[in-house]
Amino acid sequence: MEAKKLLLQANLKATHQRQVILNLLLACKNHPTVENMYALSKKEIPSISLATVYKTLDSFSQAGIINKTLTTEGIVRFDPNLSSHGHIYCTNSNEIIDYFDNELNELVSNFFKKKKVKNFHIKKISLNIMGTKIDPDKSMSIK
Amino acid sequence: MEAKKLLLQANLKATHQRQVILNLLLACKNHPTVENMYALSKKEIPSISLATVYKTLDSFSQAGIINKTLTTEGIVRFDPNLSSHGHIYCTNSNEIIDYFDNELNELVSNFFKKKKVKNFHIKKISLNIMGTKIDPDKSMSIK
DNA sequence: ATCACTGCAAATTATTTGCATCTCG
DNA sequence: CGAGATGCAAATAATTTGCAGTGAT
Lengths: 143, 143
Description:
alpha+beta, Arc Repressor Mutant, subunit A, 2 domains, 3-stranded mixed beta sheet, globular
């Protein structure tokens, strides 16, 4: 039970609903919304309430187990991928894919080592690439 | 009347409320919320309705006159600065300042010239730096 | 004159909260 | 056992919509 361990490490009570939600999140390869997670978890726990899903996702992102992101359209989504990465949004289809490139990470973090932001402690840098798909039926991808 | 010209260029009818809102936006050095703009415009047009402000800001961002941004907390804000720039968010105070650096822009755009994103047409790249202020009474700034 | 824009109020949607009950540790 | 989590329903917040009247081109 991977999820249980993660929860305890984060000082969260490992309730059934939390374990189910976390397992679903870890299996997710996309960036689910609250409603997505509600629908998914309802399959396993039909009695789960939407408020619990809200509270749970919130406590997960508080604890740093997942990240909260927002699309340009203002839709709240959750990102189970914690490693430093960017996002590619298609502003037509609202698709999001993760973007990860070591070279870019180096580039940006080196840059900010030189250029200091004054009176500010940087916690996270995120790069968002917005645009549109050329062939709407295929998905976008990184070379 | 700078605003009027901009509106006509964007194929939007130059109504009084739109001109007032756009002028306020152009004078703004920060990233106002809908409510901010409602309060400001109400000073000049006491009868203006909140729905109009919503619709107006929406049509402006549709037309590309301003940009819609979102804080990590999900607050919708508008950014009258259209040139390519990033944002520095303080996750405690919800302050946002623009971040612009030519060197960084070069760095990132060169990077994406090499690394192609397949089946995707990039429209905008935005870099968001999240963190906290060290001295909460002062503002953050870039060296 | 036409068609888009405005303002109002009502509707919708998203999210939060209070509280009684239950569960993990 | 006790702190903290859950589920429900109700509350709040944010945004949108329909529509009649108004105004810009």
